[in-house]
Model the fold of this input.
Amino acid sequence: MELFNGLMGGFALAISPINLLFCLVGAFLGTAIGVLPGLGPAATIAILLPMSYALGSPTTSIIMMAGIYYGAMYGGSTTSILLSLPGEAASVVTCIDGYQMAKKGRAGAALGISAIGSFVAGTVGVIALTFIAPPLASIALKFGPAEYFSLTVLGLLMAAFLSGKSAIKGSIMVVLGLFLGTVGMDPVQGAMRYTFDTMILMDGLDFLTLAMGMFGIGEILSNMEEKIDNDLVTSKINRIWPTVADLIKTRWSILRGSLIGFIVGLLPGGGAVISSMLAYSIEKKISKHPEEFGQGAIEGVAAPESANNSAASASFIPMMTLGIPGNPAIAMIYAALLIQGVQPGPRIMIEHADVFWGVVASMYIGNVLLLLLNLPLIGMWVKMLKIPYSILAPIIVVVSSIGVYTSKNNVMDIMMMFIMGVLGYLLRKLKFDLGPLILAFVLGRILERSLSQSLIISDGSFSIFFQKPISAACLLVVLVMIVIPVIGRFRGKKQD
Amino acid sequence: MRKWDCLSAIVLAAIGLAAIYEAVQEIGIGTFAQPDPGFYPFWLAIVLVFLSAILFVTNLGTEEQPLPFWGKGAWYKPCLAIAVLLGYFILIAYIGFVVSTVYIFLAWMMIVEKESFRKSAIVAITITGIGYLVFVVLMGISFPEGLLI
Done:
């Protein structure tokens, strides 16, 4: 009953004109950046984070940012299908069969099934979020510092292992992110750490500056090496609705994609990108006609596009209930909540129930808005692809600079953003994934606080982490995750 | 990539070692029962050095096809973009919003993207005008005072 009341209260908030407007703005912006190659949801939310200050209400700003995140999952498929150019990383696998369908004159059916799959999966994801989050939060209320420490370590390790190709490089990024988080004043005793006696570092590195620099400016610099060619948009789309046969053929693919996406979305480090790849490979494996995959199989579009939307909804669960964001885009939303004075975690249901339920309710509405935005307006989205990157890039630079400047009215922050941008570009060039770094930066404070508290409670004994069952279970998983690849490597060497 | 991975490992290990020195000498690490502010970064730096060592060791040896840092001619545009951006960030601090915004569009489009002056100037003036209207007039953001706003 409490759940029902909460959700109804959320709907009452979400349908207020201002929240409805920003839900639409978020869904619209999300679709736009999903369509445009070279700008992902994490970068866009980073660039728009300062708007949180301007909007004032945490519910309104998170409604907009959530809309950007799941909207990007809808929009990402458009360029994948029409140009074989993923507008968003979670739509990479959609290129395989989506583009083949477009070449055979079935672009409309591919776009239609991807929008329908996204809608079904997004809604399934939000329903599951509605029912799973409250009980999970009440369990998490009983967590002490030891549980938080172990859970954070597990989350960070999973992010390191699942994000890029190299687990070592991912782990280095985690440690580097945690380390960057220690710069500035120590939160307990007020001592200065790694500030080199400079004023700008005394307050610590700002999340906004780091995120905008690494994701916004860094991404622009990386894109300079690749030619983003938008001249290829020639596909004519006649009919956007898939046939009844298409719908029947893909019904199980959509449901399987939704389920896989939801489970992967719950995992730290998982998120939309991995879920879409996993859904595609499972769909291919269990298909009666695997040879059709790669040749324009509609299931190869439906499953991954469903999975990435479901994962986007699911990834709100660990962030909202445990206070542990699982991927960079969700980390940005986490930061936006902090900017608004809302601490994500189990107490959010008690202290800021309106924010939680308002955002959840807006996600139901947002999914309907996205379906309405995507299918009839497909022609407009395709036209938008003609905006050249030569104009888009300086717009991103100007908006980012304004954003970073307005957060503290300090010009030095703009310079710091530039330095972080160049660092982000170099790290990308060296094949280091920035996702784990940004996650670790956000989670650094929780990790340090929970470690210090645990050690003080236990008088310096590490046994505290193994006495609590949840903490011990998390650390056991951590151990298995580290040991298995090491054994595998040794075995491989022996066989060589 | 191996050569670059080894080089990255050396740089990261050096950062780690410097951080350990700073934590022990300047901040203080305390004990397990009473950790001081340097305790947490100290252990992070130890892990960083350890992981860097693994990255270094696993990438030792010669490569059959070593990859250059930049592909042929790929350095040109990012470096040009960095130079243009540096100019922008200096300009915004000393000259103000309008001139720096016009500059970034003109410089980016003409120098980095080799667009025509005419097209760049039209885009620069139009977007700066819209930006000024939205950010300065409507949102009331006060930019750093320069020679020109």
User: Anything to note?
Assistant: Chain A has a mean pLDDT of 85.
